[in-house]
Amino acid sequence: MPVSPLAVAAMLACARIGAIHNVIFAGFSVGSLAGRINDAQCKVVITFNQGLRGGRVVQLKKIVDEAIKICPSVQHVLVAHRTDNKVHMGDLDVSLEQEMAKEEPVCAPESMGSEDTLFLLYTSGSTGKPKGLVHTQAGYLLYAALTHRLVFDYRPGDVFGCVADIGWITG
């Protein structure tokens, strides 16, 4: 998914239900996407039908369709419709909007240990095969809060905006 409120909501929803998430930069190739999906043994992929990047339309669903052909662990692809463009919905595909309409707006959070995995984030691969770095529940959140406070001198009532892509650690 590209940077969007829905992508942030998906990450937070995964954290709430105790599912490990792995945000992948929406500009990656089929091979880069498949490599990360396979390495993490992802069971579910969430994507948009299309994305907009640099003023052009990106066929995200088509990229995911090609990638999952070589990703046997994937059981479902949740497809959010960001544009009016119709896309082929295969056997693994589920409309995210339809699934969300079936659920209550709030669910009880899953109790997680401080060292349980919160998310994986892959290195760039500039020195070899990208490596999936494990970020734990307390470790990542505590360090992010601490560095945010100390580096940016964040105080109660301040507003902070970050324009980094959510597929990178600063996003």
From TrEMBL:
GO process annotations (BP)? acetyl-CoA biosynthetic process; lipid metabolic process
Q: Mind telling me which PROSITE patterns this protein's record contains? A: AMP_BINDING
Q: Which Gene3D superfamilies match?
A: N-terminal domain of ligase-like
Q: Which GO terms describe its cellular component?
A: mitochondrion
Q: Which residues form the AMP-dependent synthetase/ligase domain?
A: 1-171
Q: Which domain of life is it from?
A: Eukaryota
> From the UniProt record, which GO molecular function terms apply?
acetate-CoA ligase activity
| Keywords, ordered alphabetically | Lipid metabolism
Alphabetized InterPro entries for the sequence: AMP-binding_CS (IPR020845), AMP-dep_synth/lig_dom (IPR000873), ANL_N_sf (IPR042099)
Q: Write the Enzyme Commission number(s) for this entry.
A: 6.2.1.1
UniProt protein name: acetate--CoA ligase
Organism per entry: Ovis aries
